[in-house]
Specification:
mainly beta, 7-stranded mixed beta sheet, 4-stranded antiparallel beta sheet
Length: 113
């Protein structure tokens, strides 16, 4: 059974930081590109960042570039998203996604102004 389990979401003040984690099981993690996608209440999904299977390349949406950092530890089967300089508009449920259309259950990030 494929499982992606996110954690690390919380309520933080504007300008604060969080680190999200997504641990995978049931898949060959080191062979899969990974991504973070977020969805704010009442809005559609928004791609945030991606990382190649070996961590050699990363990609970011313009809205988070220079504030968020995606990384991975293949030995721990975990992908991370470091969120810095958070803004109220970053409030959303954050999902990790693996190639092959595997999704986690999401973790809530709420940024207060």
């Amino acid at each position: 059974e494929v499982r992606l389990v996110e954690s690390g979401g919380d309520l933080v003040q504007s300008g604060g930081s969080l680190r999200l984690s997504c641990r995978a099981s049931g898949i060959t993690f080191e062979s899969l590109d990974m991504a973070w996608v977020r969805q704010a209440l009442g809005k559609g999904p928004e791609w945030v960042a991606s990382i190649k299977n070996d961590g050699s390349r990363t990609y970011y949406s313009d809205s988070v570039k220079d504030r968020f950092t995606i990384s991975r530890d293949n030995a721990k089967r975990t992908v991370y998203l470091q969120l810095n300089s958070l803004k109220p508009e970053d409030t959303a449920v954050y999902y990790c996604k693996a190639t092959g259309d595997y999704w986690g259950q999401g973790t809530q990030v709420t940024v207060s102004s």
